[in-house]
Amino acid sequence: MPAPSDILSDPDIAQAYEDVRSDKSETTWLVLKYESATKDNLKLAATGNSDIAEMTESLGDDEAAYAYVRMKLGNDEYSERTKFVFVVWAGPQTKVMRKAKMSFQSGQVKQVIRTYAIEIQTGDKRDLAEDAVTMKLRKAMGANYDRQGSSY
């Protein structure tokens, strides 16, 4: 059984994680993918500085991947909060053995990607639509300041 440091030995992974976490970096997401269909080692497959929709485009229907996304929530600049989302992706055509291994390996990935507000395990890109993820983040935060008709 490989140690987390073995499957996550790519030095670019730790740097990309720090970049997504940092407000000083333009990087807002990263995607980790398996080196090959037969290997369990993960590599940094992509990073970006746009929204979650851009990240979602890099996930294939036959791929297993992990993603980490920085998102901003709020009604204005004063109430804006930065939240992080951890995504465990198993596309609809991902091989059964890979999916089975992912439940164990996602725990190893979480030893590197440690800080996030919500985790989304999915094989359906609709679950990663910005409004769907924003709704999950708001539920996790508890407060909803978007209700209509509130008076002060």
Automatic annotation (TrEMBL):
| Organism, scientific name | Lophiotrema nucula
InterPro entries cross-referenced by the UniProt entry: ADF-H, ADF-H/Gelsolin-like_dom_sf
Q: Which SUPFAM superfamilies match?
A: Actin depolymerizing proteins
GO terms in the biological process aspect are: regulation of actin filament polymerization
Is Ion transport set as a keyword in this record?
A: no
Query: Looking at the record's lineage, which domain of life comes first?
Result: Eukaryota
Annotated ADF-H domain residues: 5-138
Q: State the UniProt keywords alphabetically.
A: Actin-binding, Cytoplasm, Cytoskeleton
Q: State the family named in the UniProt similarity comment for this chain.
A: Belongs to the actin-binding proteins ADF family. Coactosin subfamily.
Cite the source lineage: Eukaryota, Fungi, Dikarya, Ascomycota, Pezizomycotina
Q: What is its main location?
A: cytoplasm
In Swiss-Prot or TrEMBL terms, this protein is called: ADF-H domain-containing protein
The cellular location(s) given in this protein's UniProt record come to:
Cytoplasm, Cytoskeleton
Cellular compartments per GO CC: actin filament; cortical actin cytoskeleton; site of polarized growth
GO MF entry, a single one: actin filament binding
